[in-house]
Amino acid sequence: MFKQILFATTASPSCDHAARVAFDMAKRYGAELSVFHVLGIPSRGFSQFVKDVRTGETVTLDDDYLAWVKEEMKNTYARQLEIHTDCTLEALPGVPHTEILRAARKKDADLIIMGSTTREEDKGTYAYKSTTGSTLQAVTKSARCPVLMIGRPVASAWGGFSNIVFGTDFSKAADSAFLFALKVAKKLECTLHLFHAYDISSIHSGKAMDQDDIEDNMMDAREKIRKEYIPKMEGFDDYEIEIWEGIPYVEIVKFARENYADLIVMAHHTRKPDPEKEKIGSTVEQVVLRATCPVASVNRPDKIKDM
Amino acid sequence: MAKKILIIDDDPNIVSYLEDFFGDNGYETCSAMDGSEAMPIVKKEKPDLITLDLEMPEEWGPRFYRKLMKEEEFRKIPVIVITGLTGGKYAIQKAVAHITKPFDRDKLLKIIKDTIG
Asked: What is the set of domains in chain A, with CATH numbers?
């Protein structure tokens, strides 16, 4: 199922939850694991200096420093490396998201695993509570393979896939997310929940919505799931369709929590006019930050066909 | 008749410690190394309470708990989560209590007595 997993890490405590999932997943599904770390950001183009992720100081980049960073990575993940031997450690300088995407392409990764943010120093701030890190956003937007994001410590208490929630907004990108969710569910014999949250947030901004209209729309959404996704199941019958009304990210998080989901699969669709300039979709971002399980963002079909 | 506690933990030292501790306090015990091993034991032994670790080699705590909740006969068995995992209390929010390792055994005993007598 997963042959090559790229775990992009700062090797700092903020990535510990993602590390737990990455190592366990690689062991559980027999995948090769690349633990990948990008050192700081060069000032302009190539630079002899990088920012040390732990101290925040500017340090000279040379072979000694690179060797020291790799040694630190080995020490950080020493316990996991004892158990999971099919694993490589790599550290190099550059712009983090560019190097992560480049490495994923080069290694032909089936999956990238990341924590939701690395800004430990921002803990307690509005940004920490409500936004994901810029590297995660950039990687998620451009990755050709699914990106598995672990936002909270509790999201690492998973123990393998058995119960998947696919959250759909019926966008084109959601089709790729559906294919991924279905393939994982089929291969790993999971229950698949096809979930849609009908957005009634406009009520709070003054737009009156009749409950009959809301429920009509929910029935339409159920029908749409039946027509769009069920014919693609090809005999797979361990699925349930669920439509809730509310604020989409809240409903997805609640539904996943109540059903003890161990994976949420979504596309990071954005309705903004210029998606390239936008961040990842706000729904998937909030789900990552609040879910009790890992969240896979899938936007492209490229790697899913080969799975 | 003594009440029975099922201990689910992959650490044999914890299992042995809890078996002795519960035994000394008049409870019967049985144990399992992970969730997949535990379900047949639940069916056979019908425990009055379960102590559950979260991170285990094969089937982890949350998955076992979900299976347990699906079984009408067993869904009312009280579960106490005993874990070293950060944020573990959010994984099984409907548990009777969440105890973090290393734990205070008197506190654990009080919770058990309050729960099953």
From this structure: 1-153 (3.40.50.620), 161-307 (3.40.50.620)
